[in-house]
């Protein structure tokens, strides 16, 4: 039987489950993001997503440091929400939409993915602080800042796309 969030009896167990879940999500993003990048044009979205890919790799390394710090392993915790968003991205990439529409849809899906990450990292950061895990808090704060930057990048890419089509 797989451990799920509902099985947590303490905040510490819930914290560990959510750490594992975001690690799983980031790993799946790494696997699928190159395909998404390939489907974007040559503008700011493509450049931003390349940068984002590198940042996700860095966040995975940070998460692995956190697991080492708390003497736990990054077991696959499942990530149904991110799986659904990545499936939506795959559907967009294989659709018959025009290039402009594909880029619009991919920007929207990327923003949803970043929104998911932002919600997870915000909560983990709060819990880490509450649990007195200073090293974890520092590393999660760095990840949270990167995700905020990614959200801003995607907003700018969407505005740039909108300005091109106006």
Overall pLDDT: 89
Name the structural class: mainly alpha
CATH superfamily: Ferritin, core subunit, four-helix bundle
Taking the alpha carbons of the first and last residues, their distance comes to 53 Å
Number of domains: 1
| Distinct helical segment count | 5
Main beta sheet strand tally, sense and closure: none
Global outline: elongated
Low-pLDDT segments: none
Helix content: over 70%
Q: What is Rg?
A: 17 Å
CATH class: Mainly Alpha
The SSE string, one letter per element, is HHHHH
Task: Give the beta-strand count.
Answer: 0
Beta-strand content bin = under 5%
Which fold does the CATH topology refer to?
Ferritin
CATH hierarchy: architecture? Up-down Bundle
Question: Topology of this structure?
Answer:
Layout: H1 11-39, H2 44-69, H3 80-93, H4 99-130, H5 134-165
Helix pairs in contact: 1-2, 1-3, 1-4, 2-5, 3-4, 4-5
What would you note in describing this structure?
- This protein is mostly helical.
- The chain has a single domain, classed as Ferritin, core subunit, four-helix bundle (Ferritin), CATH 1.20.1260.
- Helices cover 80% and strands 0% of the residues.
- It is built from five helices and no strands.
- It has helices at 11-39, 44-69, 80-93, 99-130, 134-165.
- The longest helix has 32 residues, at 99-130.
- The mean pLDDT is 89.
Keywords:
single chain; mainly alpha; Ferritin; 5 helices
Brief sketch in words of this structure:
This protein is an all-alpha fold.
